[in-house]
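User: Sequence in, structure out. Go.
Assistant: Echoing your sequence, followed by the structure tokens.
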Amino acid sequence: MKIHNASQLGLIKRISEITKNYKNIVWFHVASMGEFEQAKPLLINYKKKYLHHKILLTVFSPSAFEIIKTTNLAKWTFILPFDTKNNAQKFIDNVRPIKAIFIKYEFWYNYLNKLVDNQIPIYYISAIFRKNQYFFKFYGKWFAKQLQKINFIYVQNEESKSLLKSIGINKVEVVGDTRVDSVQLNLKTSYSNRIIESFAANKQVLIAGSIYKNDLKILIEIIKSNLDFLLIIVPHTLVNIDYYEKKINDSVTLSRVNEKTVKNYRVLIIDQIGILSKIYRFGNIAYIGGGFNNGIHNILEPIVYKIPVIFGPNYHKFQEAIDLIRLGIAASISHHEDSILSMKKLNNKHEEVKIAINKYIQNYQGATNKIIKKI
């Protein structure tokens, strides 16, 4: 696997040089880590089906690129060159992809134009649409016409299919979210961490994943309450990690303790990248960050370990959150009193929650296989 610098400077030239002697290149694109999780099972299964195809994976987020580039799911991984007419033309003309596969909703006008001009098949995977998007407004008709040129769109829900049908797009199938398949891969991957295991042994543990500063008020109040829970916090970013330890009494970072000393604390702060999806296995309930910011992070990662989730009020763009609340597996909270009540309620329904989660996974798994058969 070849790994490449994230800088835009000379990016098109590097991509062109490294791919110039290859044929059968398939272009996958993801925005960030969430979309990469949706792409992961597709990448794995696509490589098995098409042994002679070469996967070029592009990423929009520079920070996500730094993590994604270390995986071995693509032959090449690059930051996406800016969506200009010149970049799009050079990228398509030099790479000559035989198909393009975009995850969720990365609609780049110039790239789409060039792909269509060159009659390269375009697929959208795990897409989700809402009526307030500009495609469905009078001023978005120009872009709606571009969507009509996409070869096929695999969506997460019936609402998305109906919205697309309303603007003349019929090459659509509801298959669900490939992240359900992706998180099951995490479940099958063994993981051990003696310090975390020692901290969580024979205790009830709340794991707070992808946490922002806005989430801290609620987490601090949970620790102050009479709930008999330990807390593991995984910040969304490791920048200013000391801030969390200073704000929370009785806390320590993972790198500063061992199996024995970690038992002296009620809060363990994870200062290590890339292990969140694995450590949910040590928890009883998960708190997902982002709900007091732009939107919640991945709530399916803890679900696969049969634990319920709570999160802030900004979740309505996420179909899985709506579904899990309806099924009694998750709860949205607005303040710390909500969080404590929800934790008690979900913890008391442990067996019911496990049964509901099993049914949810059984109903929604398999999107990857449905898509792979047709792309």
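User: And one key feature?
Assistant: The domain at 2-184+365-372 is CATH 3.40.50.11720 (Rossmann fold).
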